# Entry
Amino acid sequence: MSDIVRFENVTKIYERGIVALRDASFTVSKGEMVFLTGPSGAGKTTIMRLIFAEIKPDYGRIFVAGEDITNIKRHQIPYLRRHIGVVFQDFRLLNDRTVAENLDIVLIILGFNARERKKRLLDILSRVGLAHRTNSYPRQLSGGEQQRVAIARALATDPMILLADEPTGNLDPDTSWDIMQNLRQINARGTTMIIATHNYEIVRKIEARVMHIVDGVLVGEKEFSESLKSALFEKR
Amino acid sequence: MGFGASRGGSISAVLISALAILLMGIFLTISFNIFKIVEEAQSEVQMEVFLEDDADYNKVEVSIARVNGVMDMFYVSKEQAEEEFRRAFKEDRGLLDVLDKNYFPASFRLKIDYGYRSSKGMAEIAESISEIDGVEDVEYAKVWLERLERVAKILRTTGIITGVVFSIVAMVIIAGAIKLSIYARKKKIAIMMLVGASNSFIRSPFLIEGALIGIVGGLFACGAIYAIIFLVNKYTIIHPTSPPLEYMLALIGFSFLIGVISAQISVSSFLREDG
# Structure
């Protein structure tokens, strides 16, 4: 079994009849890096939320690491999430805690003792180049640094998949590129990755599989190319 | 995790629930004191068994002693009865001089066992004794006793209802404070749920907070009750007794429970509505 994520005819309808995702089917294999692209509101975040079970599909089935999570029970969700790392556009760090404490919480939840936690902490932070910032608070860090802390936190669990929802949305182009490189390195080490983004510049530059969504529907290469062109055209 | 975020909320919760528990405690004290008064009053109630003139004193004594609930008894002879009357009604001595013989019956005055001091118990004993040969009449303060018990029952029921009402009030207050606390930390909780914290991991700090609010409120209330009793004793004519330590500990234990249950309700409802 090398499918980390598998969607089978998944449909998600929100209140007021808004169809966020329509009959979506795809798989993501172990070690893959996949870009999820499409306009805002197209359904990218919906896919993410379905994978970490924040919401349930109305039709179809979802598999994570071979397990059918379509009707996952409430009390099982935390255990699923401990194998999934998530990174958001707004970082979602605990602002009243230091960098070390932000990571520590995850490690405590996972049940590591104090010594193990200390070791893992330094290990993870050096992987994102922030070992020197353990005692800083998020507000003392730049956007890029905060996002790296978020990535470090996502990696703390040694996840089988990392989901990044617009990870560079709040960052300038140079920092965005750095973050993407960081993610690429992490992927190169074997972490499966799904990155939702409408930063087409980056998508263009990095060689990876692209899944394009428009209005809740996964569309093919052609539509993606057109979207890409118009997006890049608008930028000029 | 600290109470920092909603310290004001927690403090007012402690104070208000302490107030509710205090009121419960005051009713507890009043109930306890009434209970003591009733107990004392009941112990004063005597039963007098009047003998027929030709009764066999010894036989009657043995029969009465056999009746359940009779703890002790002493004999009052006709002469002693007349003497008592003379002493009690000095001014009306003339009355007695008119009579040509001693019309006062001899009697046994009974001391009733603790468990039979209710109107029901007394009625039982009275019935058993009146069937004994040689007994003319059995007298005790029946109406008064029944009235006392009626009043005590009303007060007890009021106490229970008040206790329940104030418990609910305290629970609502504490649940509200916990809810505020939860919402103050909503963002943090969301992040924790995201990284896979189990429900119990998220729940426990709030349960502890609820327990603390309950305990501190209970301690506060107990302190206040003792203070009130002291002041009432000192400055008024009423002399209440403080309830025994077990009651106070039970009150604190109860408020602890209220705290935990209220917190549990708040957290559960939050977790249920939040993915």
In short: Chain B is about 70% helix and 10% strand.
